[in-house]
Amino acid sequence: MKSQAGDPWYIHAALYLVIAILSVLLIKIAIIDPKNAVEQDKFWRTESRLRMNNIKAAEILYQKKFGNYTDNLDKLLSFIKTDSFVDSVMNAFDSLTMKPANPFKPLSNGEFSPDSLMNSPKSFQDYVLQIDTSVSIDTTINRRGAVIKIDTTLVVGTKYYLEDPDGYGTVGDLYNDALKNTSSWE
């Protein structure tokens, strides 16, 4: 049986089917996929910033105990897992509000895991962690202009810089004391 245009009915049915399939693909590609990509990127950004806040809290505790910051994530994670000072801070309560004084925030899954702080959730690359090193040289000269002694002082770890390898932010600064422990998204 032919349609009024003279074409067989199955050609029209096939064309309608192709139009329906292309419409579904267009909706998926133009609406659904970008929405999922935005939601996934938002999750990665939130999760990465939570991890970076927890690394910042660990660096602050490390500095309180040892007097300087560290640029070694393995050492920092070992400090979080094994040190009694960290354990006492995590289990302490604020005496005024009687709320927990735990500086570590739970991650998106609802719990804090020190092992998750090692790398970024998107690319699984290690976070970039650096500390500053400054050298001061002091020369002592007698009245005749002869050098008596040269004192060299090396100061390591007064500031730190933490960067997400996926570009979701930074914490701290190596050159500016005003940006110490400051997150780029705050």
Describe the structure.
- The chain has 186 residues and is of the alpha+beta class.
- The protein has three helices and three strands, in the order αααβββ.
- It has helices at residues 9-66, 73-82, 84-90, and strands at residues 128-141, 147-163, 170-172.
- It has a three-stranded antiparallel β-sheet, covered by helices on one side.
- The radius of gyration is 29 Å and the shape is elongated.
Give the SSE layout.
Layout: H1 9-66, H2 73-82, H3 84-90, E1 128-141, E2 147-163, E3 170-172
Antiparallel strand pairs: 1-2, 2-3
Helix pairs in contact: 1-2
Roughly how many Å apart are the termini?
71 Å
Which radius of gyration do the C-alpha atoms yield?
Answer: 29 Å
Helix content: 40-55%
Q: Label the overall shape.
A: elongated
Strand order of the biggest β-sheet: 1-2-3
Give the H and E element order.
Answer: HHHEEE
Q: What proportion strand?
A: 15-25%
| Overall pLDDT score | 87
Record field, number of beta strands: 3
Query: How many domains, as an integer?
Result: 1
Distinctive features:
single chain; 186 residues; alpha+beta; three-stranded antiparallel β-sheet; 3 helices; 18% strand
Q: What's the gist of this structure?
A:
The chain has 186 residues and is an alpha+beta fold. Helix content is 40%, strand content 18%.
